[in-house]
From TrEMBL:
It comes from the Bacteria. Pathway: Amino-acid biosynthesis; L-lysine biosynthesis via DAP pathway; (S)-tetrahydrodipicolinate from L-aspartate: step 1/4; Amino-acid biosynthesis; L-threonine biosynthesis; L-threonine from L-aspartate: step 1/5; Amino-acid biosynthesis; L-methionine biosynthesis via de novo pathway; L-homoserine from L-aspartate: step 1/3. This is Aspartokinase. GO terms for biological process: homoserine biosynthetic process; lysine biosynthetic process via diaminopimelate; threonine biosynthetic process. GO terms for molecular function: aspartate kinase activity; ATP binding. Belongs to the aspartokinase family. InterPro entries: AceGlu_kinase-like_sf, Asp/Glu/Uridylate_kinase, Asp_kinase, AsparK_Bifunc_asparK/hSer_DH. Signal peptide: none annotated.
Amino acid sequence: MTQVFKFGGASIRDAAAIRHLGDLLARFPARPLIVVVSAMGKTTDALEALLAAARGDDPADYRERLETLRREHLATVEALFGASAGPVAQRVEALITELDRRHRRHARRERPFHYDQTVCFGELLSTTIVAAWLEDTGLASEWRDARELIVTDGTHQAANVNWSATAERVRGLDLDDGRLRVTQGFIGATPEGDATTLGREGSDYSAAILAHCLAAEAVTIWKDVPGLFNADPRRVDNAVQLETISYGEAIALAWHGAKVIHPKTLAPLQQRAIPLKVRSFQDLAASGSTIGDDARRDGEVPALMLCEAQTLLEVRPRDFAFMDEARQHDILGRLVAAGLHAGLIDAGATRLSLCLDSHPERLEPLVASLSSNYAVTRRDDLTLLTVRHGDDALLRALGEGRDCLAERRNADTAQRLFPASQCPATWHVPT
């Protein structure tokens, strides 16, 4: 059965990392195998800065950024292929030239459309180099353009998959010739051929889409950590690795801010009971973690999620009326239109409290809109703490010495909002 491997930007950040990727894949000779690859390192960030420059008024800044992108990718090609770099370098040069052409063509179009037509080149560049390197090392490979496989609508920067059209194209792949397939994460295209991107965690989602359409045996996401944890190990000094969790538990953790796997990645896998494995590309001996149907170990240890740079809005009717369903519908509709997600929503008789990410470009217009019809109070620089499967003693310990500004709790999840100034750089989960 087909396996799908996904590698993020950290795993191909430079020539040494790409060599390591080739060595890793050589240890998995079973076919069919589809390898989904992100852009190299921080390339997407560089492309977003290039996009801003293309839409700005400083041509010299744009040319400098484009040349830096070109130079960095060609340096990787040179480091990998040496004297035989010519053919791969030519393909990279052609992609950079096409990227430049698209910026010139679309710089006056609406930004989401322009974004998708150009930022997709990060994945096109990386997979061109990776596929050529694998072939050069003796791993028979074929480069495939994800824009010809994943069909979406025209919702740019957050495209919706046309599942029937995508399944028809993916199932048309001939995977029985012993070659692995290298394709891009994050990108697709409309039926008319306009590039689209799949939004947050789009590369993981790409792997899930392909796996779903092929009824794959498993998806493996290769990271620079040994697996999934009950908390961010960079922020919690006694974080515990989770060997197995269920799809439902993983979705709940992700919804509340855990850097686990985005729910949209899990849904197509859950529909076909395809397990998702998280493994370390740095340590193949590490056991990794598995997300699947088995829920028996869910909640064995409490999970802790921290969302920082939060803003609390308390919205009240100006006429002191109740915060009824009609007013909640109006407020939440404006929230959706602003493209913001509320990590915590708490309703009272005369107010609605919303905890939001502090994205100025989205938050400020929302506050202005609400203030025209409601009384709005605001508090910034907050931290939202979410605890899954925690008991009262744990919650008391985590809240000790901190002012709780908002709270929400149900049978298995508790959320509390604290001033960021009262929160430590490193947390500890009492056991």
